[in-house]
Write a structure and sequence with these properties.
The chain has 236 residues and is α+β, with helices and mostly antiparallel strands. The chain folds into two domains: 121 residues; 86 residues, no CATH class. 36% of the residues lie in helices and 22% in strands. Helix 1 runs antiparallel to helix 3, helix 2 packs parallel to helix 3 and helix 2 runs antiparallel to helix 4. The structure holds iron/sulfur cluster.
Length: 236
């Protein structure tokens, strides 16, 4: 498969992406129950019906089982993921379930580092330029140092003047987008988004140099679905 339709995550990046998914989409009962086997193994018992329905987990040092509340299951699984060192093949299986796409263990071609390849399914998504992501998603905190340095190297001062640096003393600790230099406040709507009324389409006026977060959207079909992406909902 073409490397442009898949992304590579190191073990740490995969754990962070799983945490983000859990935090972003809240309780996902079916998924969390499915993850009990690869994450908790024989310690967990999933009881499907009756008075004892739910996920039961064996105490580490006792032979007793305790029920994990549905609203606490996500955090319980994340804790287990961070406390144990799973083989990358198991992490790949977990990623596949979480991101609802193919994922497998492998090496990054550039560094030879072990990790997980995630297929984004991007080739089957077709952007309809509905503008939904640019209008509805909040990217203020997602500009990176790499984006900022790229714009410096290109001399894109029109973009740079719309990035607010967050500093701790003399150290830059964050980059906020998009900042209105006239009002001194963040724009509520992305200033680079333009609507073509004749076609009812939106476009990005900095498409070729836009931030990484915008380039990567949507990461997977699940991400598109969970964030109301028009690629999946607009059939026009
Ligand atoms: S920079 Fe471009 S892609 Fe990113 S939110 Fe703005 S208009 Fe959309």
């Amino acid at each position: 498969m073409d490397e442009k339709n898949k992304i590579f995550l190191t073990r740490q990046e995969a754990l962070r992406a799983i945490r983000l998914d859990f935090e972003q989409y809240g309780a996902q009962p079916r998924l969390f129950t499915e993850l009990c086997r690869p994450i908790l193994g024989g310690r967990a018992l999933v009881q499907k019906g009756g008075n004892h329905a739910g996920v039961w987990v064996k105490h580490r040092h006792k032979n007793k089982m305790r029920r994990i509340r549905d609203d606490a299951l996500g955090e319980y699984l994340l804790r287990a993921l961070n406390e144990n060192s799973y083989p990358v093949s198991v992490l790949a299986e977990i990623c596949s379930k979480v991101f609802e796409t193919k994922a497998y263990s492998g090496k990054q071609s550039k560094t030879g580092c072990d990790g997980i390849w995630i297929e984004t399914g991007e080739e089957s998504l077709n952007c309809r330029q509905c503008g939904s992501c640019c209008i509805n998603l909040i990217y203020h905190k997602d500009c990176t140092e790499k984006d900022y340095n790229r714009w410096i190297a290109m001399g894109r001062f029109d973009i740079l003047e719309r990035v607010k640096l967050v500093q701790y003393g003399s150290k830059i600790i964050g980059y906020r987008i998009w900042f209105n230099p006239k009002t001194g406040r963040l724009f509520s709507k992305c200033p680079w988004l333009k609507k073509d009324d004749s076609k009812n389409h939106y476009s990005c006026t900095i498409h070729d140099v836009k931030p990484e977060i915008c380039r990567q959207y949507p990461l997977t079909g699940k991400h598109a679905e969970m964030t109301g992406c028009g690629m999946l909902t607009d059939t026009s």
